[in-house]
Amino acid sequence: MNLQEEKEHLLVGLKTLQSAADRLLEKVAHYSESYRDSARYVWENQSEFDEYEAIFNKLLIDHVVDSGEQTKERLRQIIKMMDAPYFARIDFLMEGDPEPMKIYIGKFSFWDDKGEFEVFDWRAPISGMYYEYGYGNAGYDAPMGRIEGELVCKRQYKISHGTLVYALESGISISDDILQQELAKNAGHKMTDIVATIQKEQNRLIRDHSSDTLIIHGVAGSGKTSIALHRIAYFLYKYKGKITSKNFLIISPNGVFVDYIADVLPELGEENVRCIAMDDIASTILGKEYRCERMELQAERYLQREEDTDWKNRNQFKNSVAFFNQLEDYLRKCDQENFREEDYHYEGGMVEAAYLRKCYDIRGGLPVRERFQEIAALISKDIRKVHRNDLFEWLMERYDTNHVLQLYRSFFEYIGRSDFFPYADEMEIESSDIFPLVYIKMYLEGFTREPEIMYLIIDEMQDYSPIQYAVINKLYPCRKTILGDFCQNVVPFAENHSDFFQQMYTNAQFIEIHKSYRSTYEIMKYAEKIRKDQKIDPIERHGSTPREIAFESRSDEESYLISAVKQTQADNKNGRLGIICKSHPQAEALFCRLSGTDDVHLFTYDADMFYNGVIVTSVSLSKGLEFDEVLIVDADQQNYCTEYDRNLLYVACTRAMHHLNLLYCGEKSRFLKE
Description:
By secondary structure, the protein is of the alpha/beta class. It is 44% helix and 18% strand. Strand 3 and strand 4 (118-121) form a beta hairpin. It is globular. The chain starts with a helix and ends in a 9-residue tail after the last strand. The model has no long low-confidence stretch (mean pLDDT 89).
């Protein structure tokens, strides 16, 4: 490798980028001046415009604004490229060509008019060879067909502030040296892109555009969320002009997680996509008619009511496949039996009951209200003496049990389990009843569709029940990327496993990822002992062995925590410290005791901002996040003893990137002894 040649190439590139930035600055100034002139002209002459002139001038101003915004966005990309124009190079000798083509790969594409400096977007088809091949035979799918050839050079670069830090030959795969360096860094403020270190199996999932539904079951730290976000960026590139960020929707676990991932797509030059939680879906459909438990608190309710057998039994049932199947069967029965067709009499005539039944049956699949609205509209159009609203109200009255809550209660009476819905007026609806009510309301009254949503991403798939997936499928009949880890289930009762997903999504591609990148080898091997059924292939990045620290008293444990907090704050190299408690009430209590220590943050269910520094949180809220160091509080047998607790302890351990400590008084959890 000629390092001097690489430095000279970088220098040419930086000069070219600077020239491009200067030209773009001039364009931005021009568009700003054009906007001011156009706006001033419209303001001074608007009283004299006719309708068409007003429309024309509005379109003209909109065009100037759009052009200016596009220019500013391109300028932002060029400025980012001046810090690090590219991160890789491949030399590709196409069949029949005398010389190989040098292909530099970066986050964004760039071509200069003279052809002296070119960078290909990492999402371009030709760039895919960098992630897919080592030296030797290689190829890519171009718009005109398959291009075959040979990869004769493959290099990786680290460029920072316009300076070449290093350049490495990496003939087989993306160099372990660079991957190790990236993984060994302290956690940044938020999740970042991984374009320079995407692995082959990750690249294939990111670029997969043949699967209508892609289900990714990956171990902790396998990069599932990163894959999903880079997959969005890839689709926006591949189908540019046909789709925008508004065509995507992410179902995410909480507001902190949304903020944690908020920088990834903008770093890749794309707009962020809308994120919603399951609570948002339920509240949108149910409105304010019912007083409901917060769904994300179900885990806390479980920990508080472990001895309440009746509560556990009914919640277990409502989160099962059997419950969903029985509810579906019951609604099909209602569909046939609840409509009591009768002759409809109007002034001077009658609509026969048989005709009404026929109109009803042929509209099977539509919500009841929509069906009756269509029937009323059809008949009132043919028969002028029939008033549409009167007929609609009359039809609704002939549908037995047309109220959501009544129909749900009648379902439990039908299956002989009235005790499973102990609801009385003014009571709070239990969280496991919320989505059944949503489903029934959609069946009875319909719902507002979002046809603009063409791609749905569901994160933490293991925490949602079959009835929730049924609602999602009705709301969003579009392409889906579903990801999670069955061993990280922190919502009790959710009956989800690979068989369920393969039955729910019969044509889905189901992929398992066992490679883990987040944590050190020692941490993942430690976590693997807690979940022995989990097959983990940790990357060989070594660090300190996880420590189990025993204390004589809670006060000693608390003193240790205060000392650890102060150490983290004094030593910036320690990065982000996560203090993880089993439940949110425990986390709140600990936070109050640590409140005299500066710059300590508590993650709550209402939080919507991710912080650096010292974080106190519960296991359920820590999911999807990562910390340089994790302290698991009260890892004793009394606190972590059930199989559900095993899941929680596994999740807590796998939040740690570099250091893991488990603190306990008395007897340590049996899961640490096995």
